[in-house]
Design brief:
Distance between the termini: 67 Å
Low-confidence stretches: 1-16
CATH class: Alpha Beta
Oligomer: single chain
Strand order of the largest sheet: 1-2-4-3
CATH architecture: 2-Layer Sandwich
Protein name: DNA/RNA-binding protein Alba-like domain-containing protein
Shape: elongated
Helix content: 40-55%
Pfam families: Alba
Largest sheet: 4 strands, mixed
CATH superfamily: Alba-like domain
Organism: Spirodela intermedia
Structural class: alpha+beta
GO molecular function: RNA binding
Length: 129
Amino acid sequence: MEEITEGVGSVNIGDAIKKNRIQVSNTKKPLFFYVNLAKRYMQQHNEVELSALGMAIATVVTVTEILKNNGLAVEKKIRTSTIEMKDEFRGRPIQKAKIEIMLGKTAEFDELMAAAAEESEEGDGEQQS
């Protein structure tokens, strides 16, 4: 029992999975999946952290710019680093670039989201008639 207590005591809360973090991949989902997911996370948590490795960094930057240019988000923090991973094919360690961008809601976020929801409802009504 002491071992478990020691193990729990040494767990860093920062290592826990963050509820408002989106880990972006450039192969699994389309770009606007991440844009819409980030909007939803900001509605729920007021901020969202976008994280990516290697080639997916461009996707994170693009998602961030779309949200900023639409007046929905402001950058709170950008962190870059290099992490060491094992090469899947050769098994040797390789360096990978990593980026983490923390975005917060703009003052106009709720207003813009409500207007967008209203527009989509009106569009749905026109298609049904």
